[in-house]
Amino acid sequence: MEAFIQQVISGLVSGAIYASLALSLVMIFRSSGHLNFAQGEMAMFTTFICLSLIGWGLPYWVAVLVCLVLAFLIGSVLWSFVVKPIANVNLLSPIALLIGVMMIFNSLAGFIWGHDTQNFPSPFEFFSGWGSIYIADHDLGTILVILVVTIIVQLFFQFTKVGLAMRAAAENSTSSYLVGIPVGRMLSVGWGLATVLGTLAGVLVAPIIYVDPNMMLSALIYGFAAALLGGITSPLGAVFGGFIVGVAENLIGFYLIGTDIKMSVALILIIVTLLFKPAGIFGKEAAWRV
Amino acid sequence: MSDAPILKVKNVQAFYGSIPALHDVSFTVAKGGITAVLGANGAGKTTILRAISGLIRVAGVITYEGKSLVGRRSDKIAAGGIAHVPDGRGTFGSMTVEENLLLGAYTRRNKKEIAADLALIYERFPVLKERRLQTAATMSGGEQQILAISRALMLKPRLMLLDEPSFGVAPLVVKNIFNILRTINKDLGVSMLLVEQNAEVALEIAKNAFLLETGRVIVSGTVDALLADDKIRHSYLGY
Amino acid sequence: MNIKVNTNLPITASPTTPITKFAIAAAVILVLFAVPFFVSGYRSFQIAQIMIYAIALLGLNLLTGYNGQLSLGHGAFFAIGGYATAVFITQFVIPYWAVIPVAAVIGFIVGFLFGFPALRLGALYLALATFSLALAVPQLLKYKKIAHITGGVMGIMLQKPAVPAWLPINQDQWLYIFTLLITLIMFLLVRNLLKSRMGRAIIAIRESEVAAKSSGINVALVKSVTFGISVMYTCVAGALSTILISFVNPDSFPLMLSISLLTGVIVGGLASIPGAIYGAIFISLIPNLADYLSKSAPGAVYGACLMASVYFMPKGIHGLFRKIYDKLLRRKEVID
Fold first, then answer.
1. What are phi and psi of A52, to 5 degrees?
2. What is the span of the domain harbouring residue B74?
């Protein structure tokens, strides 16, 4: 029984990481209709920057804040100058482009910071006492942060004017222009915010899995699985999906197939979701334009 | 009614890529007036509206309230007080009626006024109030048209561009919609450029009209004059 | 009389006559056959690898370039071909040359079965599904419970194929010739396929599925068959690769392989047969060249070339060559 609880909690923790990656993927999909394959690598890159800033003496929270701002800039610039020029040519071009971006970020990180794994500090030491023997302080802190951020994102999309405008810009850019929404700027902001969320994921997971250029590669696929399962258009769904993927992966890995092929769980979840309910649990069916 | 036209279009050529769709089109919309654009499918009527809204590349002169629109971005044009109800209505299908209406007011800042206008719309169009929280895509054609026009009103426009408001709408509802348009024009003083295939309904509320054929203006004038000329009425308006 | 002549040659029509094309092809093939007798064994090996990549790229190009179905996971199918070969040779003691058709059949079946559910997925989701395949397969190959077949983390070692007794050549040369023969067959097959009715249906579907369906094409069947053929080609490439190297292990098929294949297809030229060759040369050369710069360089170079292709060379190297060739030809007309 204890093992079961341990696995579930551990699953929730990794689930939180997947959830935050999923959130950033959902954000980009919701605001521009694209799947950003470079999301994980960008998050890894900004996490490394954070590490360097801390190494240069900046206090933890200042470094994180600076990185989040940087992440916003990187994301919006990436959209405005790299993706936007070819966004509507066909479906293959943005995907190929983003894979190229993914590889460049990966190589650049290896070039700048090397390929050894490094430690990353955790801000949650002051939680000691809250956590029990079942869950580490950092893990608890991570889950809480993710939940809070998710709620903020959901509220943002649902109840703010900018959130509404972003949803509109993603759904119908022509109509959005006609009501006065600066569509290009909305998409740019959307990508910026998504990159911020990805960086948050990176900073939170780094103390657990250590920092190296390949840290986000496999997390990305879990993020995709989570986003798909929960609903690629729903922030709440993405987070829900993240926790399900995390727990399922751990339980199935522990009890059924062994921990070494856990990633196939993600793969199977993705394929099953796409086959039977492409919109995910919370998502709305999108009408594909012919 | 002042004499200066609110919209002046002169020698306009519009392109889809490199293909010209409008040749040397000129017309005006009087301030507070309604001008109808008639013509068959493919004549270029929708293209005119898109040209004014900045959705396609244009050469020539388009001035609105004395300021040039050519080369300006569409969202800036909308912010200037031009509400364009596109063909197909352009509603945000996945969003609720209320969200659609609020989006119409995107360019406005005064929250109190927006709320007041929203209440007014709900009063005038109870069907929208009933379906406040319903997704727009689930509504009928006529209801969506009323929603589209209301969304345009939420922008507080001085000029409305309407693309075939009768399309896909039951005849009884069409009458209702055109009554609404006439009221908006009379009570709120909103000028209108009305594109329609259904000449009869359009000419009931319009003061001026012109006819497009393959991107060219072939006939124009006041509605009274056009209707009085039997030849024009028979050959171009079909009745 | 003023007659307007269209000198704007479409990039799809070839300006060379069929006889010229045949002559060039024959010359190239002859040279290719002669190569292993003039260069070192290692060089032959390298060129054979390029040919293997070309076959894999043909497969991917058929699916993504000609039929418009995006796959980010062809490295996984390459792995299936490689592992199937190793398993069949070691477990069922089949001679290496007989395994190629076996790998082809397995590839077709796997591709067809994958193609069926893929029908329902839009381009974005298909990319996602195949991407996950590419990531999951290396892990699956290490699975302890099937290690008695797959050799687990250690992989499977094979014996190097023996040269047929009646040929007076050494092993490297034989492997090269063998690869060349298979490559030629695969190229011929795909060329004939694309010229046939099926080939036109494949392309029509890429242009517009709705229009294709209204013209009476069984879109679901054609798409699934295309997937089958595409995977078949990639499996054959994987099989050849295993035979050439005489070794498979899970780490030979990382995510990078799938990305390389996609890069090769895009940089070489989508929907073009020569593009497969250019792409194969590209993905064979870059790791070697870029390695000199730094360990991280190959990824960055791939990424940069991929991005450059999307912006500046949407038709790939093949398209670029065509453009240059067309321009030269037009200049020739004016002088004449």
1. -65, -45
2. 5-91+157-237
Give chains near B: 3+ CB pairs under 8 A.
Answer: A
What six digits make up the tokens of C89? 């040779």
Domain limits for position A100:
2-276
Tell whether B42 lies on the interface with A, counting CB pairs under 8 A: no
Nearest to A260 among C121, C128, C144 (CB): C144
**CA A270, CA A263: separation in Å to the nearest integer?**
11
Q: Could you tell me the mean pLDDT of each successive run of 10 residues in chain B, 239 residues long?
A: 80 84 91 91 88 91 93 93 92 92 94 93 91 91 91 94 90 89 92 90 91 88 85 72
* Tens-digit pLDDT profile for residues A140-173: 788 888 888 888 888 888 899 999 999 898 888 8
The candidate with the shortest Cα–Cα distance to C74, out of C305, C266, C246, C278, is C266
Measured between CB atoms, which of C140, C298, C311 is closest to A261? Answer: C140
Q: Would A99 be classed as within a structural domain?
A: yes
User: What is the least distance, in Å, from the CA of C120 to any CA of chain A?
Assistant: 7
In which residue are the tokens 């992966």 written? A249
Q: Is A161 on the interface with B (CB under 8 A)?
A: yes
Residues 88-117 of B with CB under 8 A from A: 90-95, 99, 102-104, 106-107
Contact by Cβ (8 Å): A220, A22: no
Structure tokens at C287: 């790791």
Helix/strand/coil for C271: coil
pLDDT tens, A210-265? 788 887 877 787 888 888 888 777 778 888 888 888 888 888 877 777 666 677 77
ipTM comes to 0.91
Structural domain includes residue A288: no
Q: Answer whether A177 sits within 8 Å of B102, measured CB to CB.
A: no
**Residue C201, helix vs strand vs coil:** helix
Tell me how many domains chain A contains.
Answer: 1
Nearest chain B residue to A186 by CA distance is B75
Could you tell me if residue B138 is inside a domain? no
Taking the CA of residue B234 and the nearest CA in chain A, the distance in Å comes to: 36
Q: What are phi and psi of B64, to 5 degrees?
A: -125, 120
Whole-number Cα distances in Å, C204 to B124, B153, B226, C209? 51, 45, 49, 7
* Strand arrangement of the beta sheet that strand B82-85 belongs to: B82-85, B159-163, B191-196, B34-38, B208-213, B216-222
User: What distance in Å separates residue A172's CA from the closest CA in chain B?
Assistant: 7
> Is B21 among the domain residues?
yes
Distances (CA, A) of C31 to C28, C36, C37, C300: 5, 10, 10, 34
Q: Which residues of A touch C314 (CB under 8 A)?
A: 89, 93
Q: Which stretches does DSSP call E strand in chain B?
A: 5-16, 19-30, 34-38, 57-64, 67-68, 82-85, 159-163, 191-196, 208-213, 216-222
If you measure CA to CA, which chain A residue comes closest to C131?
A: A221
Domain with residue A29: its CATH number is 1.10.3470
For residues B49 and B44, what is the distance between their CA atoms, to the nearest angstrom? 9
Q: Which domains does chain C have, with CATH numbers?
A: 42-158+170-335 (1.10.3470)
In this structure, are strands B191-196 and B208-213 parallel, antiparallel, or unpaired?
A: unpaired
Nearest CB partner across the interface for A178, out of B53, B99, B102: B53
At B212, which CATH number? 3.40.50.300
Whether the Cβ atoms of residue A142 and residue B58 lie closer than 8 Å to each other: no
| Residue A286 covered by a domain | no
Is residue A257, in this structure, part of any structural domain at all? Answer: yes
Helical (H) or strand (E) element with C50: helix C41-60
Q: Does A174 touch chain B (CB under 8 A)?
A: yes
Chain A residues in contact with C140 by the CB 8 A cut-off are: 261, 264
In a domain, B97, yes or no: no
Say which amino acid occupies C141: L
- The whole-angstrom distance between C302's CA and the closest CA on chain A is 7
